[in-house]
Design brief:
Layout (H helix, E strand, L loop, with lengths): L6 E3 L5 H12 L5 E8 L2 E9 L15 E4 L2 H14 L9 H4 L13 H5 L20 H10 L16 H14 L3 H13 L3 E3 L26 H8 L10 H6 L7 E3 L1 H12 L3 E2 L2 E2 L3 H8 L3 E4 L6 E4 L4 E2 L13 E4 L5 E5 L4 E7 L10 H12 L2
Antiparallel strand pairs: 1-3, 2-3, 2-14, 4-6, 5-6, 7-8, 9-10, 11-12, 12-13, 13-14
Helix pairs in contact: 1-12, 2-6, 2-11, 5-6
């Protein structure tokens, strides 16, 4: 790729970020990508390059949308935190107090905070189902409500790659009356002009980048029941339907679509005083409740020691989002990520359409984030 193919904002002070962005392409790791970095709520870097299609005929543009997969969880964590901020929900109340059916099979004492921090023991569905059933919200919620935990709830973290979206989404719906995606559009993304969606209308689908799959499989740790249910069954994730149906439904853990700019601007509110363009997003107090450590240790599903907040992945001890101890965010399948650093009041996001096999800590965004911090 020629350096002139890289577009967007990058003042001289942040030239090392541009160099890192170019380096990701020169190393053969990118097809198309965008990286946005904010300081004190202001976008200071916004780099775009490459192509939106595998044939390399369509440039990756300012309005190109990328599937962000599990980076969606950071947005959903924020939406749940907004209910806490409004006094409509408490992390210490039980999920069953909002969703009574969830209390079946020994799950009556699981708190919202435990569920959001991947301690509910429901990392996946244990009985065989048709993968198309994931497209039926009520059916999946009924299965999760009836299922017994895979491990004792509240004793250990075990990443819930898909199921957490249904758990959080049903809690949100029972309290708010709307789906997470609908509330996101009506309360935040629409009014603020953020190109961020959970449940993508057909009208926006032509802007979605084509995904290039990785050449190798993710490297999991030793197989255990939690990992098997999360990733290794034939029904662990939605399947059996066309991509347009996948984009259209709402799975608040897995099928968000966004630009890096939209994600970075949203996270900048969490890195600052909780406001974005004069609109209240989340108070610093509620941010602290959402991002504080709720469990830390060897994750039962991910091959790493992980510190979980209430839906947010905390930066320590892996430091995949720069040097900050209190930085938090989330990463998605293939490499996307979004993060907020309240200590330095910076935030950022990375999206791409060439997936890597890294489950967390993809070296491409790490290179960009480290370069950005080095310029502060």
């Amino acid at each position: 790729m020629s350096d002139t193919d890289i577009r967007g904002l990058c003042p001289p002070k942040f030239e090392p970020v541009r160099d890192a962005f170019i380096g990701n392409f020169r190393d053969g790791g990118e097809l198309g990508a965008r990286f946005t970095f904010t300081v004190e709520g202001e976008v200071v870097v916004d780099l775009i390059g490459g192509h939106a299609d595998r044939a390399c005929e369509t440039p990756f543009a300012e309005d190109t949308l990328c599937p962000i997969f599990s980076t969606t969880k950071a947005v959903t964590a924020l939406m749940i935190a907004r209910l806490v901020d409004a006094g409509k929900l408490d992390y210490e109340q039980t999920v069953a107090s909002v969703w009574p059916e969830f209390g079946q099979a020994g799950k009556g004492a699981i708190t919202v905070g435990q569920a959001m921090s991947h301690q509910a023991g429901l990392s996946g569905i244990t009985r065989p189902i048709d993968p198309t059933l994931w497209f039926d919200w009520d059916a999946i919620c009924a299965i999760l409500a009836a299922q017994a935990p895979i491990w004792p709830p509240g004793t250990q973290g075990g990443y819930h790659p898909v199921t957490i979206g249904y758990i959080a989404g049903e809690v949100f719906r029972r309290i708010d009356g709307r789906t997470v995606g609908k509330a996101l559009r009506e309360d935040i993304a629409g009014p603020l002009g953020l190109d961020l969606w959970i449940g993508l209308p057909d009208s926006e689908a032509p802007r979605v980048a084509e995904i290039k799959k990785p050449r190798e499989l993710p490297k999991f740790g030793p197989v255990n029941p939690a990992l098997e249910a999360a990733f290794l069954t034939k029904w662990a994730a939605p399947g059996g339907k066309h991509s347009d149906e996948w984009r259209r439904i709402e799975i608040p853990s897995a099928n968000g679509h966004a630009t890096a700019e939209a994600l970075a601007r949203l996270m900048s509110a969490l890195a600052g005083d909780g406001e974005l363009d004069g609109r209240h997003i989340l108070s610093p107090h509620a941010r602290g409740l959402a991002s504080k450590e709720r469990v830390v240790g060897q994750d039962l599903v991910l091959p790493a020691v992980v510190s979980w907040g209430a839906g947010f992945m905390r930066n320590a001890p892996n430091f995949i989002y720069g040097p900050g101890d209190e930085t938090f965010g989330h990463s998605g399948r293939g490499g996307s990520c979004a993060f907020a650093d309240p200590a330095r009041r910076v935030a950022g996001a990375y999206v791409m359409n060439a997936e890597s096999a890294h489950l967390m800590g993809d070296p491409r965004p790490r290179r960009l984030i480290d370069a950005a911090y080095g310029c502060l």
